[in-house]
Amino acid sequence: MSVAHYVLGLILAPLLAGVINRVKAKFAGRRGRPYLQLYYDLAKLLRKGAVYSTTSSTLFRLGPLVNLGAILAALLFVPLGGVPAMLHFSGDFLLAAYLLAMGRFAIILAALDTGSAFEGMGASREATYSALAEPVLLAAFIPLGMTVKTFSLSPMLAPFTPQAWEQYWPVLVLLGLAFFIVLLTENSRIPVDDPATHLELTMIHEVMILDHGGVDLALIEFAAALKLWFFCAVVAGVAMPDVTLFTANISVWNEIFAGPIIPLLFSLGGIFTVAALVGVTESVMARLKLVKVPALLTLAGALAALACLFSLR
Predict the structure, then answer these.
(1) In this structure, what DSSP letter does residue 97 have?
(2) Of 210, 241, 228, residue with least CA distance to 279
(3) What are the CA-CA distances from residue 197 to residues 44, 281, 288, 303 (Å)?
(4) Phi and psi, residue 208, nearest 5°
(5) Which residues contact 252 (CB under 8 A, 6 or more apart)?
(6) 42 contacts 221 by C-beta, under 8 angstroms
(7) Residue 182 in contact with residue 133, Cβ under 8 Å?
């Protein structure tokens, strides 16, 4: 079952971008691009060739592959629908976080390998914000592990029972907000970065991949979709209660919801709800100045610290 959930994540991850774009289009009064637009873009890029600069080395070509491989490995630790992930052990959240960091490091090296001043600028900003976001991510996992009495992502992101929600709801709400801020930062979304901008002086992630094209760019875009899926699953796992919370007094529904299909659909609905919230956030907020982003991540760290205090009660 966990293998099927992993494959399901690989298939549906590009759909998250379509949901975000459609939500933003609704706020702007437009129809928006198709939900499957990223699938079309990936198919088009896979049919194109790649052009490599004479100043680049093997690092430039390996960057997209290492990044995609690291994120694929990190997804092995993410549960779905209450079913444990393919790989799970105590402390696996540390490995998942460092795998994401390895993928980011590979893209940064590829950007620096081009010798471009613009890409070097974007790589510098990416490294700076990631250095602030990673401690917040790890700090947010600690109170979550203290809540479930184990430090493995499978039980940490499993749906919480009504009793657990009643006892730990302050911790879960604070951690949901902290993880959501980290999601926006790690995926270069507004208010941290604008994925739709074309001004090199303000771009962060997009400026690092200006020299990539064809298959390499397809790998980067697919890896970005999988990374977004990872963080949406984390936020949904923390914020979404057990489906039985809504059916506790209905015996017929209890029998239906006891099966594996409905909890899976409920978890998928939570992931796409988080993606829709990303679209809402990008529609109602402007991009922050670069010097204001550390304050946003400091807020996320404060929320994680406050959640840790609540978990000690």
Answers:
(1) H
(2) 228
(3) 21, 16, 14, 30
(4) -75, -15
(5) none
(6) yes
(7) yes
Give the pLDDT band of residue 263 (cuts 50, 70, 90): confident
Q: How far apart are CA 118 and CA 183, in angstroms?
A: 24
Least confident range of 17-31, 250-264, 268-282: 250-264
For residue 260, the tally of other CB atoms under 10 A from its CB is: 13
pLDDT in tens, 62-87: 999 999 999 999 999 999 888 899 99
Radius of gyration of the chain (CA): 20
Hey, what are 172's tokens?
């879960």
Rounded to an integer, the average pLDDT of 171-184 is 94
Query: Distance between CA atoms of 12 and 25, rounded to whole angstroms?
Result: 21
Give the predicted TM-score (pTM) of the model.
0.93
Give the Cα separation of 275 and 25 in Å (integer).
14
pLDDT at 294: 92
- DSSP type of residue 48: S
CA distance 93 to 80: 15
Q: Could you tell me where the beta strands, DSSP code E, fall in 126-259?
A: none
Could you give the residue ranges of the DSSP H alpha helices within 85-161? 92-113, 117-148, 153-156
Angle at 200 between CA 106 and CA 279, to 5 degrees: 80
**Residues 299, 303, 305, CA angle at the centre, nearest 5°?**
115
Task: Evaluate whether 162 touches 257 at the Cβ level (below 8 Å).
Answer: no
| Euclidean distance between CA atoms 190 and 27, whole angstroms | 15
Residue with tokens 């911790």: 171
Among 190, 184, 170, 152, which residue's Cα sits nearest to residue 304? 170
Give the separation between CA 250 and CA 157, rounded to whole angstroms: 25
The more confident residue out of 282 and 252 is: 282
- Could you tell me what percentage of the chain is helix, strand and coil, using 3-state DSSP and rounding each to the nearest 5? 70, 0, 25
